[in-house]
Amino acid sequence: MSHNTFGHLFRVTTFGESHGPALGCVVDGCPPGVELAEDDLQPYLDQRKPGQSRHTTQRKESDRVRILSGVFEGVTTGTPIGLMIENEDQRSKDYSEIKDKFRPGHADYTYIAKYGRRDYRGGGRSSARETAMRVAAGGVARKVLGPDIVIRGAMVRMGEEQIDYANWDWDQVQQNPFFSPDASSVAGFETYLDGVRKAGSSVGAAVEVHASGVPAGWGAPIYGKLDAELAAAMMSINAVKGVEIGAGMEAARLTGEQNADEMRMDAGEPVFLSNNNGGVLGGISTGQDLIVRFSVKPTSSILTPRRTIDADGNETEISTKGRHDPCVGIRAVPIGEAMMACVLADQMLRHRAQCG
Amino acid sequence: MSHNTFGHLFRVTTFGESHGPALGCVVDGCPPGVELAEDDLQPYLDQRKPGQSRHTTQRKESDRVRILSGVFEGVTTGTPIGLMIENEDQRSKDYSEIKDKFRPGHADYTYIAKYGRRDYRGGGRSSARETAMRVAAGGVARKVLGPDIVIRGAMVRMGEEQIDYANWDWDQVQQNPFFSPDASSVAGFETYLDGVRKAGSSVGAAVEVHASGVPAGWGAPIYGKLDAELAAAMMSINAVKGVEIGAGMEAARLTGEQNADEMRMDAGEPVFLSNNNGGVLGGISTGQDLIVRFSVKPTSSILTPRRTIDADGNETEISTKGRHDPCVGIRAVPIGEAMMACVLADQMLRHRAQCG
Amino acid sequence: MSHNTFGHLFRVTTFGESHGPALGCVVDGCPPGVELAEDDLQPYLDQRKPGQSRHTTQRKESDRVRILSGVFEGVTTGTPIGLMIENEDQRSKDYSEIKDKFRPGHADYTYIAKYGRRDYRGGGRSSARETAMRVAAGGVARKVLGPDIVIRGAMVRMGEEQIDYANWDWDQVQQNPFFSPDASSVAGFETYLDGVRKAGSSVGAAVEVHASGVPAGWGAPIYGKLDAELAAAMMSINAVKGVEIGAGMEAARLTGEQNADEMRMDAGEPVFLSNNNGGVLGGISTGQDLIVRFSVKPTSSILTPRRTIDADGNETEISTKGRHDPCVGIRAVPIGEAMMACVLADQMLRHRAQCG
Amino acid sequence: MSHNTFGHLFRVTTFGESHGPALGCVVDGCPPGVELAEDDLQPYLDQRKPGQSRHTTQRKESDRVRILSGVFEGVTTGTPIGLMIENEDQRSKDYSEIKDKFRPGHADYTYIAKYGRRDYRGGGRSSARETAMRVAAGGVARKVLGPDIVIRGAMVRMGEEQIDYANWDWDQVQQNPFFSPDASSVAGFETYLDGVRKAGSSVGAAVEVHASGVPAGWGAPIYGKLDAELAAAMMSINAVKGVEIGAGMEAARLTGEQNADEMRMDAGEPVFLSNNNGGVLGGISTGQDLIVRFSVKPTSSILTPRRTIDADGNETEISTKGRHDPCVGIRAVPIGEAMMACVLADQMLRHRAQCG
What we know:
Chain A is built from eight helices and 18 strands. The first copy, chain A, has 356 residues and is of the alpha+beta class. In chain A, the strands form six sheets. Chain A has a five-stranded antiparallel beta sheet with strand order 1-2-3-7-4, covered by helices on one side. Chain A has a five-stranded antiparallel beta sheet with strand order 9-8-10-16-11. In chain A, a hairpin with a 2-residue loop joins β14 and β15. The longest helix of chain A has 24 residues, at 332-355. Chain A starts with a strand and ends with a helix. The relative contact order of chain A is 0.18. Chains in contact: A-B, A-C, A-D, B-C, B-D, C-D. Chains A and B meet through β1, α3, α6, β11 and α7 of A and β1, α3, α6, β11 and α7 of B.
């Protein structure tokens, strides 16, 4: 991963600011002969787009993606796929509050520290709006991976509310505005988040992404490990502060006996009796489900006044009004899925390159 | 990160198997004019090397590193630095147990799945022995970073035993065989690990690495984020299953008010009143301490018999004898420090490139 | 260089087909604080665009470039710069002649061999239309390099007609439709090319690009040599078949005495008494003018019937009608300049990274 | 290509100075299951090594290559292959002449300009001794490519002496100390070079490398073109100043009719009636022989005194004694072959990745 490009053979390069004319990306390295249309990508963008419920920002964006190149007669040609989404709701607003003050917990300060300037309109490049292009690219990656690899994400925690893993049901995820796999958790999430929103506050969340159908053998030791690249991919999502594979941080508590995912044969195929390793051993897939979990910190744009400084070094306070997600973790679900898809498409091509 | 190379401008490429003739690496991109000698690297290797206490593997390796190129008259020349450690203790042993059986939780199975063959002697390339070269490269990175950037690691948990953060004292870390910063934790760790070892078992651990003195502004959005690269770097260490920056997975529980690291001025400089973000915002350093935490799963080579299969697909059991670390997490401390150093040296050069 | 991206720190990624909706590119890694507007780029695009004289293709394209991101309040922000040119003259035409037949000397056959399909409209991705984005990116690179580095190209040969180097005058280059630096050559080029065009034929050319003001010390041995990257950059331009630095292929004829660019001091600065090495020694700039020369083969789309095969493996003939450059080498001049600018901007940043 | 690594999937990283303890390289990305032994590499190194005839430097090096990793039981494992050659003839000599003076035409001056220091012993990193590792890596690449792809090089010109292409006979190349494919040229080369050597002078050369058996479809537009990467690879060899593909610089003189490599069918396969394009169209292989030609400038270390300056900026003269090749172009033949092999192995893997 480097700067605004990620991936080695399936490579995604994005550009665009929150309130500029457009967002875009180039997906390079896609195999030829893959059927691809804008309609294949739009459903994922619709899941991520704002304003789908009262629980996300009310910015209005249709997020219609256009394919500008790389597809001919409905099929990829092997040349780079240019994708673009025009920004529609660049609401003319008063930026005086955030133009010169740094929101605590936001990238306002660090962009200035690095570049000496920043596009402060809606967060500019540091806005999660950039992730729309990841979701579009992830849609291409899914087509490359084919229907046998199924990538699904879910929200498993929001602040002090969490799901009951015993109730996990993938069919529930699309039935509620929280991408929760546990129907019994929804009412709690709803009440909780209404309270957060009305208080002008925000809250963190945890998201889990699974990939099924990944064959054993993908990944590349030592520094191209499948789990290392998944960790980078998820940590590169705005506001993510922790990434776990399988048992994750809990692995520190386990003994060797507990952690060992024992193996048996079933119908002529190796099977594992548990999945503490989250589908990866030595950086290479085991054939089990890949399981990645990540935390998303609370939105830093909150109504509650916080102490900060301004660009001139004066102490001051800031209170951020406007259309912000009370829990950005919700919309992180389709983004996490997209990053999983892109990492896997890349590793699939790399595996094919070296091992035929 | 890709395959056996990591870094973009400060690039490290490693090679070597556990029981081959030698391990080596090439450190490319090092600035010229840096004073460097083998004695600058050896102390870090000595911290990682086996057999330093009864709590680590008893394999005997002096791990003497040789500089083969890139240094002239005691100073780096800007050309690639070749480093090599010869393997000494390639004990002729009976590999029949692990040659054809897969240790649960180990990369044995996945290497076969990927490559169709593997060097089974001591784990071959998947052995943590590879990390000796990371530690050597990390020593070079520290010289590049200079004395103002201080990188220190500590073990904070082993199985159910953990430190009391209130007792944190960096001076303690080198005073005990666990790299514990809490003197009061040492007896507990000792008793606990003696029990684990005598039971032929193993246990996980958690390690925390801090970097002080990093200026605000290092890092590179969007896919070259400082925290994303730290996550990949730590996750690429053998047996690591989770990585956290600052509040880490706990960020999912916080509200916006709790998470906001408020800012004030102190002696003309911006200061933060807390460090939930672990020194990174928007992928760019804030000037605070960088704080990374990671979990290390228990060694998969244990004496307790576990169910597994062999290369021919027969169900069997395995019990691994021989010289194994009961808690590989201990020796992961200098490795984590080295990865932090390499990531920072790379980001320093990248920042200088773009921003002067 | 890899696939559709080139450069390491100043990175250009392009997309777009000849007859698709748009061409675009992403320029990543640009330093912040560089004044940049669309008007800075347009003059270079105007030099390359078709239809400027009767000597180039009559396709009508205004080639207006739009900046979609990375610039705020007239200055670069350090984030990726998205650039786009919409295709206007996607003339609906009859492609039956080239759809199924391979033009000898064209990429028609090899795209099919590689990808199994191709966008045959106007050459698709293999069209020199892609180079419009290189020229736009080169404009950004020039701004990064600053006014002290002057990059200029000229056509020095067309078929059997060539310039007299003794008459070289940079001021002439913009005074004639051939970018010739020798006023006395223009009438000859004109007559010659009129004949070629009327015959339905085409002809090759040679182009020379100079960069003045490059300080000594840029470049990176061993595989990142300045001349190696210039060679790749020029060879990547459509139809280029040879690249020379300084004495070029003639170096094979020289003795050590002839080739040695002797050194003296002048006003306290090292000076060279000749420039056989074209401003590069050991892959690193000497401070002299960089001199690169490349050949451009004749356009493969000619009216004269040529023997070929079709996609079904039948022997046939092809005669290409339509709007083609009789000498694509002319428009290669601004493209060569742009590639020089991009390579230098990248090497400038890389040098600053390693050597401060 | 970047710095001391080249290739994308078949990646070679070299290190080592002319008079340091050893040269080495890491070959990463090699497919598993390739039979490989040191004896597979040594013949190529023996062709390049000094002292094979009176026409090359008399430095004594056995250039024995050792495989340090990546091969187990005679077969590659897919892990990085470490290769090393120990320097033997680090003759203690008087470097006072070249320590502080810059040889005109040599990298002495530019290394100082870039790095502020240099290892002056035998040219340090800028010595062609580095190319021994390219030749070793090329041997690995040939094994990856398999026996159907045949890579052969020949010297076609030395100063004013050149071969007669009509006499080309590959069987002659190994029969004379010049790698000449034309038996009738050998006496002339011999007499000519004896004169050059006795005069304390040196002379340039031109080398041509062919690859047969490359299937149509390898290569990657736009910036990963097969010919662009070959150009960079050859230009990265010490002393190379020009690179041509097929007709090369002469393409500037051709008409479209002359340049078109017409196509017919032969036994159900496409065939070309000429090969002006050197086996590449649009950056992708055509299935014809790949033909690359490059010039090598004369050795800059000559006995004839040349005007130069010293490190303190004083004007002076230099006359280089010692063991230098009067024509480095001779030993460039196996080096050019090795670079061809490495570029092709990389492109083979990249093609397999994207196109299956």
